[in-house]
Each structure stands twice: as structure tokens, then as C-alpha cells.
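Curious: can you check?
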Amino acid sequence: MSLRLKQTLIMVAAAPIAVWLSIDLASGDYFWPALATALALGFVLSRLLRLETDVILIGLVVIGYLVGSRGFAQVTLARGLPLLPAEVALGAALAWRGVRCAFERRLPFTRDALNWSVLAWVVLGGARIGFDVAQYGFVAMRDFAMVYYALFFFLVRHMARESGARNYLLGCVLTGCIGLVLVYPLTISFPAFFSRQLVLNDAPLVFHKEDILQTFFAAGGVLLFHWARGRQRTWAWPLASLVFMLALSSDVRAAMVGGVISMAVLLLARRWNFAAVQGSLAMLGLATLLIFAQLPGDTWAGSKLDTLVARVVTIFRVDAPGVAPTTMSYKVDNNRFRLVWWRSVGLEVWNTNPIFGLGFGHDLAAGFLRDYDQDLGEEFLARSPHSIAVSALGRMGLAGAAVWVWFCAAFALQGWRGLKSNDAFTWGTWGALVVILVSATFGVVLEGPMGAVPFWILLGLASVQNDVAAAEKTESFAA
């Protein structure tokens, strides 16, 4: 068949499809146009980058969640149909990787503690959801997302065995972190554009949730700092330090604690550079505030110091006597808010079903609202008790909590191995994961796709990085 005949046949077939898609666009139905665009983009990128389409899709999705956050998470391809980006990417990748594994006769699984603990998390949650979906319906599946997003870990581990896919996915995570830093100031400067013009099916493509934003500012700062080499450091280190300091000085104390613990872990592993630079900048900033606070007539520096002291005090205390509420932009009893909720969940689990929990779809806030004596407004919509560990206890009981503790222990062992490798980017990968995991322990991070999808993808990449470093070390020793 001649080239001209092929082109003619393609044009004849594409013309009615183009007309059909144009009609859908004009009528406001974006499902088929969006699907066609995604397939075409995936095909083009697959040919250009020489990667499989599901790898391309996972990379684009992680960039979307990092840059768009809650806005991207709410985007649906069809009105009234919950075809969300994470679920579409997960379904497509599971289907293709399932075929690949069948032909290779090999599971995307390594027999180590981290893989076993994530598998136990998925299996236990899968067993629990079978009893809950009949009772709670779609609400149960929404809560179950905190479990099934962990499947990204196994998918990425299988993809990242190939160096091209691994480098592409790491590049996408890094691109998403840098994109977040660049886009966020634009959302502040041009809010109307992002809330009214940049929308799909009435949902803004970019809308940032403050706790997720600051968590990924801190995590992205750690990652970007350790990625930079040579001349890249002239712009990457200042940018990484800026966003990391912004996170540490923000009102999101979970991100602040995560950043500090990440620095401490890096110091324990004798990785000095990041902690030395950030510590020096923090001391310089404090010294500057102290100097300006002593000047006659100063109000700005003094108020900043008061706010900083209040944040630090409220990390460790349930209340903050002597600290005026006007010096903070959040409640001084925020810790008590968490403790009351955690206690309420624990008691309800213990009195109802201590081994397997209350299930997905159960309202974990009902008992808390009865016990908490502060005004939370007319409508309180939060479903997570602001801790992935307590969510595991509430949804899956002591069994779920035990599996999560097992996962955290395996995470710590794998992370320590990564920090002892010779690759600085691997140190940054694990340092960023520490930030996210700590923030998830005190906030709503891993229960939704904005935090969970990047976390499980980055964890899969970090785990493979450890395997590659171990293999290189063995080869070097053998040589």
C-alpha cells in the first residue's frame, strides 16, 4: 500500500471522528474529547520517549496532582461519572501491567519487609471493603481509596526496573514539585483566572489545599536540593531553600514537623549539606527578626516572632496559656481537637469491633462531634481524624493499626538503607518521603489522591533505587 493511500484512508477515517469530537466540545461534553486527547498525547510521548503508554500516563498524573492538588483531584472526564485521574491511571496501568506480568510469568513483587507490609495493607483493606460496600455504597469506596492507592507502589516498582522509565518518573515527580512552586504564586496573583477560566466540567484544574501545599513545599525542597549537581545548584539550592523555609514558617505545623524530622534523619545518616544550609538560613532569619524587633516603633518583626513562638508552643501542648489567640491564624487548641478525635475513634473501635474496626464508609466524626465542646461551624465535612494511623485503626481496627506499624518499621529500614547509599538523589527521595509520612501522621494527606498518589509512586521509585544501589555495590565488590 502506498504512503499516499495510507494517508488518504487515515484522513477519511479521522474526519467523522473529528466532527463528532467537535460537537461534543461545543455541547460541553468533554469525556470523549479528553479521552482522545489523552490517547493521542500518550501515543506521541510514547514514541518520542520510547516508553510504554502506562508509564507516560502515571508520570502525567503525578505532575497533575502535585501542581493542581485538590483542583486536579476533582476533575472528571464525564459529568456525573466519577472517572477521576488517579482511578483512570490506576485502572489502565493495572490492566496493562497485568498482561505484562502474565506474559513474563513474574509478579511485580519483591520478597522484602516493605513489599510484604504494603501487600498486607492492600489485602486487609480489600477483605474489609467486601463487607462495607453493601452497607455504605460509594462512600465506602471513597474511604477505601486510602488503601487501593498503595497499588501504585507495585505498579511503579514494576515499571521502574527499566532505567528509562525510572528516570522519566523521577523527572515527573521533580517537575511536579518545581511546577507547584512556579504555579502557586500565579494562583495568588490571578485567582479569578484559576477559579473561573481554567476549569473542566465546572471544576478548577488548579486549587491548592494548604496542608498538602506546604507538605509538598517541604518535600519538594528536600528532593530538589539533593537532585542538583554542579551548576544546577546555583538556582536549585536557593529555590529548594526558599520553599523549604516557607513550609517551616507556615501555619501547617504537620509540614513543619515533617521538615524538621527529615533534617534530623539526614543528620543521623551523616548527610550534612541540607541540614547545614537550612539551619544556617533559619538562624539568620531568627537573628534578623530579633534585631528588627528591638528597633523603636517596630510591629512587624515582633508580631512575626510572637507567631513563630505560638506555632512552636502549640506543637507540644494541648493548650497554650499565656499565648494570645490573636498572635496565631489557627486555634490554640488545635492539638486538643486531634486528641479528642483520636480518643473518640479509639474508644468507638474498642467498644464496637476492636480487631477489624468500624469499616470503610462509617462516619468517624460522629463520636468526635459529640465530645468536642468548641464551635466547628454549621457544617463539618471532614471524615478523616487527621492521622493516617488513626484512620487505619478506625477503618480496620487493631489489625489495620498493626499492619501500618509494620509498614512504618519496614519504611524506616528501607529508608536507612537508602540514606547509606552513595547517591545523593536517593537521599533526597527518602528525605522527601519522611516529610510526607510525618505530615500524614498529623494531618489529612494519605487519605486522598493529592498526597497519596505522589507518596506511593515516590516510594516505589525509592525502593527500586535501593535495589539498584545494592546491585551496583555487589557488582563493584565482585569486580
Remarks:
- Residues 388-419 form the longest helix (32 residues).
- Confidence is low (pLDDT under 50) at residues 320-331.
